[in-house]
């Protein structure tokens, strides 16, 4: 009884917060007992969140549609991703790669299976040393493709990302499994600084899987119920994984493997099923990586405080520091561990 009382008091105090998160981007079933309630998800809570979020995303995209070309808009609407080869002018791309190769800056690293991912935030200090990256970020085409795919004009978080395959002993990289990131449209963008070959971590995406069809909605319902049954267990991305055998039941094709030379930009709605392709041998992939995810229940496209006065460029470091603080307080776990001055091209 003594143990039950603190737990009951905690749940009572946190219930308003958990209820408010239903109308937020919160996606984890394990850390919110409302979102992770099997009974509520059997009765349609998760699918209702997905349906409302997608309707609002469609409205926001209609407002953003004029900002990108008709061909890119058609591809994003049809396939869920767009591939832009030779995205930067050759001279600008040469400057960008040279400046990043010369850069040594504080970074964070995360290990997943046998793969290490390194992030160097493109914050104001780094951009002073990599002016070519500032020119990329200021390009309307770059910004607008990310905004349209993410259905929001909010500022994304942008990093120099390094992915090192087979870098440590461990299980296969879990990012190789087809998965969706969350229950609503979100965006990730990769400007490859190194060549991406078919046997060295190509981007993998299931064309058309970003659409919330009736079959996909039923899959979301089944997934949410399975995840709710595991609500007391640590949650991983695998909750939202899908096997290739299931794709045909959803009326979807097999995934497309996207290998591309350096200076290719890929922008994708990561509600669609996607993965990191396998690597036949240890490989280092370096890219400018952007990630955008905002509260999907906001009806407007802008009014983003992170877009003011370069505040968004400081968001990655502020995020890392906040999770560091939560870990010190015993309220969370920081997966991204700091490294002192390092190059994006250094080994793990």
What is the H-and-E element order? HHHHEHEEHHHEEEHHEEEEHE
Report the total helices: 11
Biggest sheet, spatial arrangement of strands: 1-8-5-10-4-3-2-11
Look at the helices and sheets and give the structural class. alpha+beta
* Average pLDDT rating: 93
Descriptive report:
This protein is an alpha+beta fold and 348 residues long. It is built from 11 helices and 11 strands. It has helices spanning 4-21, 38-42, 45-64, 70-79, 90-102, 124-129, 131-137, 140-150, 214-229, 244-247, 315-328; strands at 81-84, 105-112, 115-121, 157-165, 187-192, 203-205, 256-258, 265-269, 274-276, 283-292, 337-342. The strands form 2 sheets. It has an 8-stranded antiparallel β-sheet. Strand 2 (105-112) and strand 3 (115-121) form a beta hairpin. It is globular. It starts with a helix and ends in a 6-residue tail after the last strand.
SSE diagram, text form:
Elements: H1 4-21, H2 38-42, H3 45-64, H4 70-79, E1 81-84, H5 90-102, E2 105-112, E3 115-121, H6 124-129, H7 131-137, H8 140-150, E4 157-165, E5 187-192, E6 203-205, H9 214-229, H10 244-247, E7 256-258, E8 265-269, E9 274-276, E10 283-292, H11 315-328, E11 337-342
Antiparallel strand pairs: 1-8, 2-3, 2-11, 3-4, 4-10, 5-8, 5-10, 6-7, 6-9
Helix pairs in contact: 3-8, 3-9, 5-7
Outline:
The chain is an alpha+beta fold. The chain has helices at residues 4-21, 38-42, 45-64, 70-79, 90-102, 124-129, 131-137, 140-150, 214-229, 244-247, 315-328, and strands spanning 81-84, 105-112, 115-121, 157-165, 187-192, 203-205, 256-258, 265-269, 274-276, 283-292, 337-342.
